[in-house]
Amino acid sequence: MMNSNMFGHTMWAGHWLWMLVIAIALVIPTWRICQRTGYPGVLGLLVLVPVVNLALLYFIAFSDWPTDKKGARNE
Predict the structure, then answer these.
(1) Which residues cross the membrane (predicted)?
(2) Confidence band of 13 (pLDDT split at 50, 70, 90)
């Protein structure tokens, strides 16, 4: 017998809203981090792609930041 509640086999409308909130909460800080390190902020969108988000994290953590290179020239 089919259960006719809103959490059955169909997507609940609140699920999409929740996914949007989480995406915004992740993309905005990652966008700002990318900008502050000297990389394009658009790289922050990569945080939404599984496995690529981990590669982005390691890339930012272990690469030489363009802002560090600019700061060394100004000294």
Answers:
(1) 12-31, 43-61
(2) confident
CA-nearest of 32, 39, 33 to 69 is 39
How crowded is the C-beta side of 46, counted as CA atoms within 13 Å? 17
> In this structure, what token pair is assigned to residue 32?
């700002």
What is the crossing angle of helices 52-62 and 13-37, to 10°? Answer: 20
Do 27 and 48 touch, CB atoms closer than 8 A?
yes
User: The whole model's pTM is what?
Assistant: 0.72
Task: Return the ∠ at Cα 31 (arms to 46 and 59), rounded to 5°.
Answer: 55
